[in-house]
Amino acid sequence: MSKLTHYLIIFLISMVPLIELRGAIPYAIGFISAGADLKLPLCYIIAIAGNMLPVPFIFWFARKVLVWGKDKKIIGGFFTFCLEKGEKGGEKLQAKAGRGLYIALLLFVGIPLPGTGAWTGTLAASILDMDFKKSVLAVIGGVILAGIIMGVASAGLFSIVF
Question: How far apart are the C-alpha atoms of 126 and 108, rounded to whole Å?
């Protein structure tokens, strides 16, 4: 496989919901370890770019799609559930985090656990009607943090420390 193909796969993996950068970084490190001539810093940049590309679309359209779909016959119940769950969860998060809401969003996106990440964090920010610029900055900070954590974990540095 060519370098360009690997870089394209890294980009595409990082765009996939739930997998995101958390899957793209181990993929890149695995192929670097297997002898592929990939540059790790470039892999990180490509993974971050791929992970961030859907963010504005999620922020601007997710809530609108959920509101549009809540009256529909087949999907209405699920979309209503998503809106209500997001709003209730958001209210609790706002009450607990207070003025640290954007730091909480950064940490939520940055801690690589199932169900967290740029897609979920941006969806939550959209449902909560959070400020776009501040949300995007928090999400990109979280994506960078997740990339560092996944890079360290993939390189096996945690096994040395623990």
Answer: 15
Output the pTM of the full model. 0.83
- Show the tokens assigned to 86: 């997001």
Contact criterion met (CB below 8 Å) for 126 and 118? no
Spatial distance between the Cα atoms of 94 and 157, rounded to a whole number of angstroms: 35
Instruction: Please state, in angstroms and rounded to a whole number, the distance separating the CA atoms of residues 14 and 36.
Output: 19
Long-range (24+ apart) CB contacts under 8 A made by 66-71 are 66/127
pLDDT (tens digit, 9 = 90+) per residue, 110-152? 998 887 889 988 988 988 889 999 999 999 999 999 999 998 8
Per-residue pLDDT, 83 = 80
Compute how many other C-beta atoms are within 10 angstroms of the C-beta atom of residue 118: 29
What values do phi and psi take at 139, rounded to 5?
-65, -45
DSSP 130: -
Q: How far is CA 70 from CA 77, 80, 107, 127, 147, in A?
A: 6, 5, 30, 14, 35
> Can you tell me the distance from the alpha carbon of 134 to that of 146, in angstroms, rounded to the nearest whole number?
18
pLDDT for position 159 = 55
pLDDT for 87 equals 76
What angle, rounded to 10 degrees, do the helices at 118-127 and 132-154 form? 160
Cβ-in-10-Å burial (0-12, 13-18, 19+) of 145 comes to middle
